[in-house]
């Protein structure tokens, strides 16, 4: 990190020498077409409102699967000389080289939500995320509590190989294997498309009428899963758990379609992500990992302050 610190110090001296315009912090997420990422945007905006001398831009591809588009957005941010970048990488390998280029350009990068591959860990300054492995285990524990230890559980996942998916779904699966005799059906990958998840879940429910549980591992997947459960008339017949907390998922909890949803601190990711970049630019020391947490929201606690602070 020393080369980056020296370059940042030189930049600070140069800015102090003249009248510096507000510096841009680029927040780049997996897709802008999701309430989860729009809540990250709200958090980032809240951080910028309290910061003098900085502006913020927010962007992302049309879909999480458009990995090349996200790479291009980071390239463009580097080329226009942003002061710092907050990035939610859609692929742990594909975003690595461009983050490395930002490091070489003395632009600090804070990663949120999903990790980059280990080979690129020296190219960014901090990682802010739900501990997705711990969250996956928490969902698995709830599955066992509600569904028991025998039978079949389907996993409706999103994009294979994404850092958050590896931790969330992998640790859910491992926990069930170590603590129950539950048989895994899947995982099935929706590519974070609600309609795809709906169709996949419809097929899974049809092919496995004896399912005792089902897990939708991110927002669009869980929404599609919930709609398929309703259409199949299976609400209340199996334990359905989701991840993330938009209005559709909240309503599924209230209606008893979903037993519970594990909700990440998406607002905190945006707010703390921008604040961490600013701390770095101001010469401060930051933690290499900042856990933004998860809350298990069900019908009993959905109206509490703890739940309302993470729902969106």
TrEMBL record:
UniProt GO molecular function: carbohydrate binding
Gene3D superfamilies, per database record: 3.40.50.2300
Any Pfam family hit: Peripla_BP_4
Annotated keywords: Signal
Keyword set includes Signal: yes
Protein location: Cell envelope
Name listed for the protein in its UniProt record: ABC transporter substrate-binding protein
Organism encoding this protein: Pseudoroseicyclus tamaricis
Taxon lineage: Bacteria, Pseudomonadati, Pseudomonadota, Alphaproteobacteria, Rhodobacterales
């Amino acid at each position: 990190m020393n080369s980056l610190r020296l370059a940042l110090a030189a930049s600070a001296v140069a800015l102090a020498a003249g009248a510096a315009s507000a510096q841009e912090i680029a927040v780049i997420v997996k897709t802008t077409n999701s309430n989860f990422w729009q809540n990250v945007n709200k958090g980032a905006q809240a951080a910028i409102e309290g910061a003098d001398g900085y502006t913020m831009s927010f962007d992302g591809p049309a879909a999480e699967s458009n990995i090349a588009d996200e790479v291009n957005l980071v390239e463009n941010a580097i080329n226009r000389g942003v002061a710092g970048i907050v990035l939610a990488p859609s692929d742990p390998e594909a975003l690595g080289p461009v983050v490395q280029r930002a490091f070489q350009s003395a632009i600090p990068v804070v990663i949120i939500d999903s990790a980059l591959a280990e080979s690129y860990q020296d190219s960014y300054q901090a990682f802010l995320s739900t501990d997705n492995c711990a969250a996956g285990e928490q969902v698995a524990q709830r599955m066992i509590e509600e569904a028991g230890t025998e039978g079949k559980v389907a996993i409706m996942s999103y994009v294979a190989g994404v850092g958050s998916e590896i931790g969330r779904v992998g640790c859910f699966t491992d926990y069930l294997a170590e603590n129950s005799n539950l048989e895994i059906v899947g995982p099935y990958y929706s590519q974070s498309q609600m309609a795809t998840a709906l169709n996949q879940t419809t097929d899974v429910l049809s092919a496995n009428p004896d399912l005792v549980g089902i897990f939708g591992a991110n927002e669009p997947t869980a929404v599609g899963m919930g709609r398929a459960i309703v259409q199949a008339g299976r609400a209340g017949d199996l334990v359905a758990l989701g991840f993330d907390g938009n209005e559709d998922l909240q309503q599924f909890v209230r209606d008893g379609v979903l037993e519970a949803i594990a909700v990440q601190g998406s607002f905190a990711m945006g707010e703390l992500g921008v604040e961490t970049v600013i701390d770095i630019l101001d010469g401060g020391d930051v933690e290499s990992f900042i856990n933004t947490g998860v809350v298990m929201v069900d019908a009993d606690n959905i109206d509490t302050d703890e739940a309302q602070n993470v729902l969106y």
